[in-house]
Amino acid sequence: MLSFPRDVDVLAATVAVCVGGMASLYACRVRERCKAARIGHVHLVPTLIGGPVGWLLGHLPELQLGAEESGVSMTRHVRAVRDLHKRSCPEVNRDAVGVIFPGTTLGVAVLNPRDVEYVLLRNGSNYEKSALYDSIIPLLGASSIVVLRDESKHTVLRRQLNPAFSAVALQTVYDKVVAKHVQTQMLKLSAQLTDGIAAGVDVEHTYDALALDIVSEAAFRETSVETAGSDHSGSSTVSDYFRIMADTLLTSPYILVPGLSALPWPAKFRLESARDSLRAAARVIFARAISPSHAAASDVNKLLVDYLADAHLDPSTVADNMTTVLLAGHETSSTTLTWLSYLLAKHPDVQQSLFEELSAAVQIGGVPSLDTVRNLSHLHNCVREALRLYPPVTLLSRVAVQDDCLPHSGVVIPKGTEVIFYVYCLQRDPLIWGADADSFRPDRWNDPSTMERVGLGGFLPFFLGKRNCIGKDFAMNELLATTAVLVRRFKLEWTEGQPEPYRQEKLTMRPKVPIAISLRQRTE
């Protein structure tokens, strides 16, 4: 009788468990596909994670294997499934597509902008945030306005935070923070010029530093807070702590995946240490904000931390939302400025028309006032067009509280269904934006017929409704000011022959390799 070493038995058992587990995952997915077919949905599964980890999470290789730019496979699948839906179900509006979301949750992707408006605006009370957002609680905290799922608590917190983003508050931040840091960063760029030219400037690094300095000072009043007992003590600052968090998440996004986040990853401990340091810094700044020396500050001198103090929030909620402002206010602005610089360098005709508008309104050595940048229509169009083509956040979702029906596509939404909005696909959809939807054409925003087709639901860089981005005006002011000063001072040039940027999605849709732009000093 043959016998095998014990380690062979262990190996065989391990293989059997792995094969059985994968078979179970596949069986669950087949069952969900059959369920979708019975209720008349066409299924689509977005591939979020590849390789062995993707297998374990149920992202099966039948969908998409190989490296693809973020958004490309998503767009191709959405368009292909919509065409299939049109052929197989001609009586149903093609602008809604049934999907099976990663895991086993039945969901529906909404592709008609009127249905998007319906879900997020007119019937928003029937749709709540999904459990998808729970994955970032370890990063932002359970009281963050981004992840808070309880609608009544969210409403109260939103009301308490709104004064920090009022017109008066934003004017103060622009005058005291934005203008100062934009000017400083442009002087640093000028210092890189040799004979009026700087080749291959890493604009992403420049914008990261700028956006982080702006939001750190706006949220924390200062960027050089040190905290006793921190693992990053010494010369570390608020900006340093956040950079550690951002770099860790960009290189190790799996540490926020449910299940995987419980494992003892070194990256996880690095992130938690920096996060705890940030929260400690928030407590220090908050204590200063509520001290007698700041209590009598007038409205024109208040920053975000002062409004948080006025709201009488508990320290944990303050720390969570100051960290949230750092994350959302830095990452999205930096990413958008990077892509906008790339687009302007690739389209010198658009850049020239923008320069002509700016040269008549902005001094070459200064930073324009907030009223000035708000009244420059072509500048606004360029920023909006960059946000359309490269939305920082490409997907959001809601869950139906009660049964519903999308009025424009006629798709039934059973209670508990995940309703998904592919922002990237919506904003590049030819049915909404025309045949040149993938082209950078800022003047499309002047076309009334296009805007009528788009409506409010076809452009979602800051989302929509009661859960929209509370800092959208803060972000737009920063984007407008930075772009105005940059194009007024420098001509952005793209070196022919260099590889095009490759999009990847981590926290936001960023270029995989830093984009290099050449700068030429303007003299007129």
Description:
- This protein is α+β, with helices and mostly antiparallel strands and 524 residues long.
- It contains 20 helices and twelve strands.
- It has helices at 6-38, 51-56, 72-88, 113-122, 137-140, 151-161, 167-191, 203-220, 238-251, 266-289, 292-295, 304-310, 315-346, 348-359, 370-374, 377-389, 423-426, 430-433, 448-454, 472-489; strands at 96-100, 106-110, 127-129, 197-202, 395-400, 404-405, 412-413, 418-422, 490-493, 503-505, 509-511, 516-521.
- It has a five-stranded mixed sheet with strand order 1-2-8-5-3. A three-stranded antiparallel sheet has the order 4-12-9. A two-stranded antiparallel sheet has the order 6-7.
- Strand 10 and strand 11 form a beta hairpin.
- The protein is globular.
Topology of this protein?
Blueprint: H1 6-38, H2 51-56, H3 72-88, E1 96-100, E2 106-110, H4 113-122, E3 127-129, H5 137-140, H6 151-161, H7 167-191, E4 197-202, H8 203-220, H9 238-251, H10 266-289, H11 292-295, H12 304-310, H13 315-346, H14 348-359, H15 370-374, H16 377-389, E5 395-400, E6 404-405, E7 412-413, E8 418-422, H17 423-426, H18 430-433, H19 448-454, H20 472-489, E9 490-493, E10 503-505, E11 509-511, E12 516-521
Parallel strand pairs: 2-8
Antiparallel strand pairs: 1-2, 3-5, 4-12, 5-8, 6-7, 9-12, 10-11
